Amino acid sequence: MTTQEVFDAIIGYEHQVGESFLDRFGYNINAANFMFWAIGRGHIDVPKFKEWEHAFCNGELEADDPNYYVYTDDEDVTFALVIDEDMKEETYHKAIRIVAQFISESSVYTRRLEDFLADKES
Predict the structure, then answer these.
(1) What is the Cα–Cα distance from 119 to 72, expressed in whole angstroms?
(2) pTM of the model
(3) What pLDDT, in 10s, does the model give residues 52-71?
(4) Within 13 A of 57's CA, how many CA atoms are on the CB side?
(5) 71 - beta bridge partners?
(6) CA dist list (Å): 15 to 8, 10, 68, 76, 114
(7) In terms of Cα–Cα distance, which of 110, 46, 7 is closest to 54?
(8) In total, how many domains does the chain have?
(9) What's the domain range around 76?
């Protein structure tokens, strides 16, 4: 699946079920895998990554959930890739495009997404 196909599938899922994709699929994303990928792709800088890494390694995160490191309205979570206090659709889509890119670049995560979407249809 291309990044655009993954993005479209995620947004389509959200419209169909009426809830956040990350709330439901987040357990399928390994936080360390994602954040190492994100720093490699330039979606997060080194100081923010080190802040996340410290919190992650010391059990200081509220949860091991993408809502705490991909997209948030909590400005105190300074290591999140996208922070938007107003939770605008434009910034949300920016965050989902990053997730879609991550998923599309991995056959493991693409398969997890396809299985997740297939389970929701049955």
Answers:
(1) 27
(2) 0.91
(3) 999 889 988 766 778 778 98
(4) 7
(5) 82
(6) 10, 9, 22, 29, 17
(7) 46
(8) 1
(9) 3-121
**CA–CA gap between residue 76 and residue 30 (Å, rounded):** 22
Which residues touch 40 (CB under 8 Å, ≥6 apart)?
none
C-beta of residue 44 within 8 angstroms of C-beta of residue 52:
yes
- The per-residue pLDDT for range 8-23, each reduced to its tens digit, is 999 999 999 999 999 9
Place of tokens 């923010």: 48
**Which residues have CB under 8 Å from 45's CB, separation 6+?**
39
Rounded Cα–Cα distance for residues 32 and 45 (Å): 15
CA distance 34 to 32: 5
How far is residue 23 CA from its own chain's centroid?
Answer: 10
